[in-house]
Amino acid sequence: MHEYSLMQRIVETILKNLEEGADFQGREVKEVILQIGALDIHSPESFRQAFEVLVQETALAHSVLKLNVIPGAIACPRCGYAGPCQEGVDVHDPLPCTECPQCGTIASITGGRGVDAVELVLED
Questions:
Q1: Is 85 annotated to bind ligand?
Q2: Annotation-wise, does 42 bind a ligand?
C-alpha cells in the first residue's frame, strides 16, 4: 500500500505539471524516468504496478515507467567505511542503522530515501 500512495503523489504531481506547462501541450509522454531511494519502496514490482493502475485514462496512459532505485549507503563512524548498505534494512525505521561490513560497528544509513529525480521523455 505504501508504494501505491507514494506513486499516487508522484503521478498527481506530474499530471499537474503537464497541465500547467505550455511546453508540454499536445505532446505525448513516452517515458517517465524516476529515481527513487531504495528505502522508500518495498518492491519495485508493486511500484510499477501502482504506476500502471494510476496512469490509466490520463495523459500518461501510454508511457512506460523506467525506475532507477538508489541504494542507501553506510557511513561508519568508527572505521570510516563508506559504501552501499546491505539487504535487510527495516524500511519503516525513520533512522535506519546496520552493522558495518568492515568492523561490525553499528553505522547509520544515509541516502536511499525520497524521489531524487523525475524525467519525462516526450514525443518529438
A1: no
A2: no
97 is in an annotated binding site: no
Reply yes or no on domain 2-71+113-122 having CATH 3.40.50.720. no
Task: Give 113: exposed, middle or buried? Use CB within 10 Å, 0-12, 13-18, 19+.
Answer: middle
> Which residues lie closer than 8 Å to 122 by C-beta, 6 or more apart?
24, 27, 28, 29, 30
| Model pLDDT for residues 66-96, shown as the tens digit of each residue | 999 888 888 899 999 998 887 666 666 767 7
Residue 72 DSSP code: P
Give the integer Cα–Cα distance in Å for 19 and 77.
47
Residue 56: which residues within 8 A CB-CB, separation 6 or more? none
Domain ranges in the chain are 2-71+113-122, 73-109
Q: How many residues does the chain have?
A: 124
Strands, DSSP E only, in 23-72?
29-37, 64-70
pLDDT tens-digit map of 17-53 = 888 876 766 778 999 999 998 878 878 898 899 999 9
